[in-house]
Amino acid sequence: MQEELNNLKNQAIAAIMEAKSVAELEQIRIDYLGRNGKITTEIKKIKKLKPDEKKNVGRLINEAMSTLAKTLAEQKLSFSQSAKHWFDATIPGEKPALGHLHLVTQAAAEVTAIFEKIGFTRVRYPEVEWDWYAFEALNMPQGHPARDEWETFFINLPEDKKYGKVVLTPHTSSGQIREMERVKARPPIRMINIAKCYRRQSDATHVPMFHQFEGLVVDKGINITNLKGTLDYFGKKLYGSKSVSRIRPFNFKFTEPSFEVDFRCVHCDGKGCKFCKSGWHEVGGAGMVHPNVLKAGGIDPGVYSGFAFGWGLERVYLLKPGLNINDIRTVYRTNLAYLEQL
């Protein structure tokens, strides 16, 4: 029986060393040490032995079981370590997922490129602005009812004696004055200013924080024909050659004459829908720069004239064919499934 035990132990050790996986090791353990295993079966034979043989055979069985258990554990450990540290330098690495620019950033880049092709230069001016730049220099003095339209956020900071209160800029038009100051009364100016604006508004076509792009051209002999040509050029470049636009007389204090600019809605083809409500989608205002605004910027209105326009970037871009977004608030959703498809 002693010889038989030694043979079983050696067979088991050989099988363990030749095993190719943890699953094979587990099967070997069952075959030799399981409830009906080969060595377990030898234990049942001890009761038939003579008293002086039981002790020796019991010691051999315990030794065999201990040796096999230890060998199994070591071999399992070698498998796990091998898997953990295995490395094949010839296999290409897994490339991380790449993101993309947000829709608003894409829109800003496309709008910038369109205007740069006709000589505009993109600038950037403060989002936290003085009341003077946001209103007074734009021909809207303190208490003027025209200010109500902008539903402005005021900042709780001390007023400046010259510039007044601090505001979150309600429109990029404040950049007109800063650009005129920058050129120090020496036009020409061909400016495109794209920045965040803030107003207390929220519905399908408005959000409290949005983006505008402001165009300003100042030079000798600038007239309304130059303005209309620029607007038509932009519409056809962004929306395609079939783009249809219109201008409507309006009243802005910083332009004279003033217009609101509309494009025919692409979502309903001019029939009227939740997005446009009338078949036309207003993108913003435009007009000839008011002489008082030129004076506030240090430019002589007797020598120079200019036009300006300020449009909501998101509102303009949502009309782009194929985009199929009919609620401006969708642009600022944080849902990853939505963002990944932009």
From TrEMBL:
Pfam family, one: tRNA-synt_2d
Identification of the protein by name: Phenylalanine--tRNA ligase alpha subunit
Alphabetized PROSITE patterns for the sequence: AA_TRNA_LIGASE_II (PS50862)
PANTHER family: PHENYLALANINE--TRNA LIGASE, MITOCHONDRIAL (PTHR11538:SF41), PHENYLALANYL-TRNA SYNTHETASE (PTHR11538)
EC supergroup of this enzyme: ligase
SUPFAM superfamilies listed in its UniProt record: Class II aaRS and biotin synthetases, tRNA-binding arm
UniProt GO cellular component terms: cytoplasm
Entry note: cofactor: Binds 2 magnesium ions per tetramer.
Residue span, Aminoacyl-transfer RNA synthetases class-II family profile domain: 114-319
Lineage: Bacteria, Candidatus Woeseibacteriota
Phosphoprotein as UniProt keyword: no
Gene name of the encoded protein: pheS
UniProt xrefs under Gene3D superfamilies: Bira Bifunctional Protein, Domain 2 (3.30.930.10)
Binding site for Mg(2+): 256
EC code: 6.1.1.20
